[in-house]
Amino acid sequence: MSFTAAQIASHLKGEVVGDNSAVLTGFAPASTAKSGDLTFAENGTFFASAEQSAATAILVAGPFTSKSKVLIRVANARVAFAQVLPLFFPEPAIVPGIHPTAVVASSAQIDDSAHVGPHCVIGERTKIGPRVVLQGGVQVGDDCLIGEESRLFPRVVLYAQTQVGQRVRIHAGTVVGADGFGYVFDQGIHLKIPQVGHVIIQDDVEIGANVTIDRGALGPTIVGRGTKIDNLVQVGHNVVIGEHCLLVAQVGVAGSSKLGNYVTLAGQVGIIGHINIGNRVLVAGKSGVIKNIPDGTKCMGSPAQPDRQAKRQWIALQHLPDLLRRVSKLEKQLAQKPATLPSPP
Q: 340 lies in a domain?
């Protein structure tokens, strides 16, 4: 598939500096680009590498100029990078239909444009919308709903009553709607609390591989519109995640906690149950959150605290060995001084 520089610029709402008719046949980083490729540069260092490469054109933002390359100037080079990649690397076309090895309940409703791959299992009364793709081995329980253009990769499991919105992507091995971790200690045993809720995944969510999202004990666990969840994340029962949040790998959110909109939890963050995290909160990697966090806060550490406070404490810790040596030296000096008795009255 090939495009002219002018076509790419039009798609990105940018402008061409140089030959509008230059033909572009691929997209590659500067280190491996060849003639006909488009590459991109976010700053001066990357631009210098791109200019020395064999690429035909460079996607740039800012006042860069070149005598040897066609430039496609855009407002934001990384955003444009994300927007142009699907042109050169479109998703494989999926043929509508139900594979002969799939097991589909008689009461299930599957749109004619949907694709149900080999060895899928579709439960009773489940509804699957237009252009949905279920790849091999997907299991969908009873009374589920999957919105249009959503894509479930191999071996995804949706337990009963799970609701998946439109344009949702759920990657391989993820389990949505398993029982929450709910028990009460009674007469020497951990008595299971039945988990009778469900899970709601709103529109435009992407969920990575091997993620687990538990059903609510009562009512739903909710993942808000536009949220992106990385691989190996655990979301507990009755958690509510707001819109456009980012949960990075190995995050764990305990039951009934609530996240506002545009929250970012970096890798391996742990959130205890029944707390509230405000809008636009950023929690640094490996932090442990044990209390509510107000809107707009950046925090870090375990237990997590405002980032400036945590950084001051870390700096103080770096000085602790020197402080201990000084205190020890003072103690030795004091021990060598003869004791003085007070003067008689």
A: no
Distance from the Cα of residue 129 to its chain's centroid: 25
Tell me the residue ranges of DSSP E strands in 127-171.
127-128, 133-134, 139-140, 145-146, 151-152, 157-158, 163-164, 169-170
Q: What is the pTM of this model?
A: 0.89
Closest CA to 211 of 191, 231, 184, 239: 231
CA distances (Å), origin 62, targets 5, 43, 52, 72: 18, 9, 19, 11
Residue 44 has pLDDT above 70, yes or no: yes
Q: How many CB atoms lie within 10 A of CB 185?
A: 8
Judge contact between 312 and 295, C-beta under 8 A: no
Alpha helices, H only, the chain = 5-12, 44-52, 77-88, 307-318, 320-336
Evaluate if residue 313 carries a pLDDT over 90. no
Query: Are 174 and 280 in the same domain?
Result: yes
Q: Supply the CATH number for residue 30's domain.
A: 3.40.1390.10
* Count of domains forming the chain: 2
Is 214 a domain residue?
yes
Q: What residues are labeled active site?
A: 237
Give the domain range for residue 273: 97-307
d(CA 20, CA 64): 17
Residue type, 57: A
pLDDT category at 184 given cuts 50, 70, 90 is very high
